[in-house]
Amino acid sequence: MSAVAAFPETRGEAPGRPEYVELKRLVEADGLLQPRYGYYLAKMAINAALLGIGLFGLRLASTNPLWWIADAVFLAFVFVQIALFGHDVLHWQFIRAGRMNTALGLIVGNLLVGVSRAWWNDNHGAHHARPNDLEHDPNVNILFLACTPEQALSRPRWVQWIIRHQVALMLPIFSLEFFSMHHQSLEYAYRRRPGCARLELWLQIAHFILYSTVLVVALGVTSAIGFALVHHAFTGLYMASIFAPNHKGMPQAPTSRAAGGVLREQVLTARNVRGNWLIDLMYGGLNYQIEHHLFPSMPRNNLRRARPIVRAYCERQGVAYCETSVLESCSEIVAHFGGVSRALAT
After folding, report:
1. pLDDT computed for residue 15 by the predictor
2. Closest by alpha carbon to 262, among 288, 239, 295?
3. CA 170/CA 32 separation, integer angstroms
């Protein structure tokens, strides 16, 4: 599935459901779908500076255990910020010229983060096309987490034991996110699946060589291995803390798009996380998940401005608009997964 084809703003509304088209006109009238080049150029510069600080911190990490842990956590933050920038690039929020977008996606995704641009497009495009659809959304088809008792029963018995304790094991499961992304990316690029550019696999290999070399030179072999494991675990935890509140515990997608239309499908399955500039930074704008799903190519810094427009429009249309705090979203996620575990145990 093409990532672009999966996004509602490039596809149009289902017949008989003009709601999305009308909302898009309101958003376009405020110029919120226009590229914001200055914002993203500044993001590139800031991320480059943060990466430089993190790499310099490896020198301190080699002499002090506290700096070792601090730098692993800091670099986890930096890697996710770079990945969030790559996410925006692949949504065409920054560069909309095809070849330049592909080239930047390869550099940011494959080379810097080690995540295949083509795999991400395919995986994330499927998520955007049918969010919270147990058959088509890969984000609700995670081996060690079950969104429904029926999904849990479809897993091997040894996995069912983990699912019965999925709330208690949630943090260890989330810490595997970055490892899983690397594994899936390498497999996707190695098999040259749809959308793979010629350099996909070679750039990923270059990432791991460069990453390993920098750590070994700075820390030595043994410490480099430990640092890489801790860094990947914290990166996975941070990523999962952004991804989980967006859709986990929200209603499943309707069995037929014609039954609800694009707007209702995208709004009812998503959850916003309200906050301030710090929440916007930490979540990379994905705390405005409803707006992002409705308009994936909208630049990140316009999502906050789109929120009152979308919310007011949903109220007029009688469409439930879910927005919670960070703590409330965590509570809802825990309650949802806990309910699935209890149902499986009975």
Report:
1. 39
2. 295
3. 37
